[in-house]
Amino acid sequence: MPLIPEEPQIHESAQGPRATAAAGRPASTPRPVPGPRSAASPRPGHPGPPKPAAPASKPGAGQSPAKSPENRSDQRATPQLQLIPAPLDGALDAAEEALDLLLESGRAPGEILVLTTGDPHPWAAHELSFGEAAYWAQQDTGDDVFFVGASAVERAAARPVVIVAVNGGDEETAARALPAAMTRAGALLVVCGDPQRVTALLGVGAGV
After folding, report:
1. Residue 208 has what pLDDT?
2. What is the mean pLDDT of the chain?
3. Spatial CB neighbours of 89, under 8 Å, sequence gap ≥ 6
4. I want to staple 94 with a disulfide (CB 3.0 to 4.6 A). Which of 26, 86, 128, 208 is the partner?
5. How many CB atoms lie within 10 A of CB 176?
6. What's the rounded Cα separation, in Å, for the pair 98 and 84?
7. Contact between 45 and 186 (Cβ < 8 Å)
8. Contact indicator for 145, 157 with CB cutoff of 8 Å
């Protein structure tokens, strides 16, 4: 009786080079929550496709005036805050890892702003060497991650996600930077640094 060849097994392919590289790297910091990934549960800051309009109903029948749109708007006014504990000299590395995880989760690069309170990110230092006009033009383009120092946070445009690396800087600059970062984060603010210092800085910046 002839042998029937087995059907070839289909293996799932790796999800791109970024996912392959991340698989071999142990996570040294807590993973930031990027938000729901399914279409049914859109990510923070993304309302998702509009729902079909409900049939019009007559007033009464125990129905109260619709107040939910205003309530939902108030709830979205404050971004989700996540703190990733990191030492002063490791805050930038923690921010880099948080950035990688958010990109791998599906966040677009143009949705993310990275802020440093101490030494600037190497990318920012390199781009500023070509002049401030070219540097800020990349923010206006809005198609890639943008890195900015705390001293220039007032010029930073709002984005859905803001990552702050508390990697140094004087107390006054850092205290101004954190509240400013919160006002520019549409959905998620990730702060990488010493938890006690971050809490104190947020209190000082808020005038507590």
Report:
1. 34
2. 74
3. 167
4. 86
5. 19
6. 9
7. yes
8. no
